[in-house]
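Hi P.,

Sorry for the delay on this. The queue was packed all week, but I finally got your sequence through. Input first:
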Amino acid sequence: MSSAIPNLERMYECGDVLANAKGLSYKSHQAEYEEILAGVKGADNCKRLSSQFIARFFSFYPCLAEKSIDAMLDLCEDGNVDIRKQAIKDLPTLCRDQHSKNLPKIVDVLTQLLQSEDQGEITIIQNSIMTLIRRDTKGAIIGIFSQIHTGEEVVRERALRLIHTKLKTSSAELLNKESQAQIIAEIKKVFASGNVTAEEFPRLMAILQFTFLPKSVAGQLEIANMVMKMADLDADAEFDYNSTELTDRLLQCATHVLPYFSNQVKSTAFCEYLVVKVLPHYYQLPDLTGMDTRNQLCKLTADLAVNIGSLKDPLTAAKNVFDRLIDYMPLPPATEDGSLAEVPNLEFTKVECLMYTFHQIARQADTFLTSDQERLKDFRSRLQYLARGVQGYIKKLKEFLATTGTKPAKEGEVEDVKIKQIALRTNENIQAMIRDLFHSPPIYKANVVLSFKPREKNSSSSSMQPKVGDKRKPITFSGKGENSGAGVTTGGKKGRGERQLYMDTVGRKGERGGSKPSVSTYRPGGKSARPSGQYNVPQGKYSSKINSKGGQDW
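Then the structure:
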């Protein structure tokens, strides 16, 4: 490059010579192009003109490609924001046609420039990056992720946000199979680094959704394995329950990997880790910002239990869940005259989740309850007492929901009705599992859909109609109506599954089962704290709409 720095007039002269050159004559005017390159060190007006001329004549001087790119990069770092903006606008022209190999490098540079604090400059940078993404998506992905792997925190965060936003609106037109494969490879590399923050993880998972990976069972398994590797589920090491970071990462990983588990992709490893390594430290877990740690752990464990396979140690898993479950199932307190006191406030959401998890795991450890008669007797006593509370809530909720259908909904009542509908599902689920667990010996046949999960479409009322040729089943009433006892069957004999459980009569004077409850000698494993005793309304789709009832009884 010539050492002489041209002035504005000389810059125009050089540009005019090159503009009038034709064909092979460009080679004879290489000196003029080198003067234009030297213009990047001149006055501000020369720098802007130099950027425009380099972009215009770059393709005619491949032997000076590296010097040209370096000259443009110098302009991108200039102190004058207007010069930087001009260079950023012109940079994409250095990746055209035979120079497409430069594209990943140019995108890398542009991504690095996202650290600017000038919003106008950031907009121009994003537009230039988007131009290159449309030109060569795979190459642009390589350039962007180069900064995600090694860039400063602010650059990394803005690069991730940019690619997520652009793919969310244009993934169909931008991503071919090759580009999707490149995204998958880059995200795997990010996960493998173990350097993913709580804010980055959801974005990376969302970007994976735009690829072919979640669309096949093999791909879902691959995603699940990627997330579980990042969660560091080391079955041989103890979980550091004092670490807020590890606890948050574990719960986040569990939350985002859940959609990829199914009958074909089992959640066994994740569920077993939570049950065996984390649940024993239930009361020592740190509080996380904006989250009820214990409530979230119960929900995630239950959700993961839906698709578990064969556990390595089902008895230990069953014991750990059982010990937490009975924390929320108090023994029936007796008054001086032997009658039962009022049913306390119960945390039905946690009861549903822990009972469901136990119900799923105990299928693989069916001797857990029956091998210890004292434990079974104690558990049944707790089940009886819980059944009374559940039955009472179901009755109240059904009465409320029946009356709301007969009058126009007032302002604010719609969400209240939805919350109570979920609460009804919660209690009906618990009631169904109580029937199984109270069976002698306990059985695990109830098909329960967790109350905070959406019902499947085929579980609508229309699908409950008997098929042609099916034997008509007798009408039964599982709840207690005004003029009928619990378990009354109309139109047929009492079946074994419909007979009245004596748990429904506990505490009624003058009836069997109303005698003073005996004191249990069973002593569950120790714990450092007791549950609050408050009923937390189910945390599902409408959890953000819950009003100030604050866990109080309905």
